[in-house]
Specification:
It is a single chain. This protein is an all-alpha fold and 212 residues long. The chain has 2 domains: 114 residues, Rna Polymerase Sigma Factor, Chain: A (Orthogonal Bundle); 89 residues, Winged helix-like DNA-binding domain superfamily/Winged helix DNA-binding domain (Arc Repressor Mutant, subunit A, Orthogonal Bundle). 66% of the residues lie in helices and 0% in strands. The chain is globular, with a radius of gyration of 19 Å.
Length: 212
């Protein structure tokens, strides 16, 4: 993050925020006109999901925080180009996914560090049922961490598909718009991503006696 980016973030964070009662369309319009306080209110609507997507993509709290900041800066700089006849959330999450994919490619990281946020289930992939006996809970935690690691070993494009579809439950149409690919490509790539993930899971001893 360069000096100008830090200045933008500082201004956005410290700008006096007045009480706002605008519609989403008004928030976008006023943000496009350069009203920073309104932009701050607008970005608050999406910052949690931006961070969560980033965290699930890179698997590290600090990296996800940096990416979320970069996404906010990109949105701030590009918001004048947004056309209000399309979905703003789709546009935001497209930027988020693109920044994540670019960052992963830049680092050439096939395996991402697993810095878990155990105190907040918000950021954990809901893979397993936590209602088992104590020994089962331990096993489930190991299983969940392994599945998360396996997802992070996929290519960034496949990783994004798994996260958008299987973690957040976006429809094929929504994913198509977010990633700017046609629905047929979404389905074929998702099937490939799931197959690769399944193969990784099968190789782990945690799943030797289980159906995957």
């Amino acid at each position: 993050m360069n000096f100008n980016d830090k200045i933008i973030l500082k201004v956005i964070r410290n700008y006096e925020v007045r009480i706002l009662d605008y519609s989403l369309k008004d928030l976008i319009s006023k943000s496009q006109d350069g009203d920073i306080s309104v932009f701050e209110e607008l970005i608050k609507l999406y910052q949690k999901k931006i961070f969560n997507i980033a965290y699930r993509m890179v698997g590290n709290y600090d990296d996800a925080s940096d990416i979320a900041q970069e996404v906010c800066i990109k949105i701030f700089r590009s918001i004048k180009k947004f056309k209000q006849d399309s979905s703003f959330s789709t546009w935001v999450y497209r930027i988020t996914c693109n920044v994540c994919i670019d960052e992963i490619r830049k680092r050439k990281a096939n395996t991402i560090s697993l810095t878990a946020i155990n105190e907040d289930k918000e950021y954990k992939i809901p893979i397993v049922d936590k209602r088992g006996l104590p020994d089962e809970i331990v096993e489930n935690k190991e299983t969940e961490e392994f599945i998360m690691q396996s997802i992070n070993e996929l290519s960034p494009e496949y990783r994004a598909l798994i996260i958008l579809r299987d973690v957040y439950g976006y429809t094929y149409i929504e994913i198509s718009k977010i990633l700017c690919i046609n629905i047929g490509t979404v389905k074929s790539r998702l099937n490939r991503a799931r197959s690769l993930l399944k193969e990784k899971i099968k190789k782990n001893e945690l799943f030797n006696d289980k159906n995957v």
